[in-house]
Specification:
Blueprint: H1 2-33, H2 46-56, E1 60-62, E2 65-66
Antiparallel strand pairs: 1-2
Amino acid sequence: SEVLQGLRLYRTLRRDPIRFYQWASKLMTPFFQSSLPGLALRHAIAPTRREMLRSLAGIKTGVFSSSPLQEWR
C-alpha cells in the first residue's frame, strides 16, 4: 500500500540522521550534565559549543552536514 511505501521511505531517509544523533548524544552527554569546571558546556570553546547545541536541537544530521534549518539561526 502507499502508506507502507511512505513509511519505508521515511525510515530510509531518517536512518543516517538518527544514527548520528544517537552517537552525538552519547558523546555530548558529559558536557551537558557535568558540573566539573573544565567539562561543562559553558566552558567549551565557541565553535564547539555551537555545534553541540545545533546537534542537541536536531539541526545537524551528520558530523559535516545539517538540515535546511541551519539557515534559521
